[in-house]
Structures are given as structure tokens and as C-alpha cells.
Amino acid sequence: MGTRHTLDARRQLCPLPVIRTQNKIRSLEKGDILEVVCTDPGALHDIPAWCRINGHKVVSTTTRGDEILITLEVGGE
Prior knowledge:
Blueprint: E1 4-9, H1 16-26, E2 33-38, H2 43-54, E3 57-64, E4 67-73
Parallel strand pairs: 1-2
Antiparallel strand pairs: 2-4, 3-4
């Protein structure tokens, strides 16, 4: 596995969590792990859908109070 990174997208509404995830992944290497922390419930569907389209793998999704943690593995775009 690659390097672990975290993206804080809390208090941002759709489509910002997806856009910030996309921008962050551009600077990462294939195999890197990115944990996105967000509070917009829509991100729970939007980010995994974006990952499927762009060749990234959702490793896990976890809800912790009002925070959603989406862990992804960077694939090839």
C-alpha cells in the first residue's frame, strides 16, 4: 500500500467534497490511501460514485456521529 493522506471536507456541501477529493487525488500516486472526512450526507453516495467512474477503490465508509469517513485507494485514472 501507498502513503496515507487525509482530506478535511467537513462543513462543505455538495459538490465541494467531491471536487476537493478529485483535486487531492491528482497530487497522489497510484496505491496511495486517502481518507476523506466530511459532514455532507450526500458525499456518502457521491464520492463512491465518482471513484467508480474514475477507477479508484473505496476501501471503507464509516459514520462517526455527524462525520463521514470515506477511505479510498488511488487507482489509475
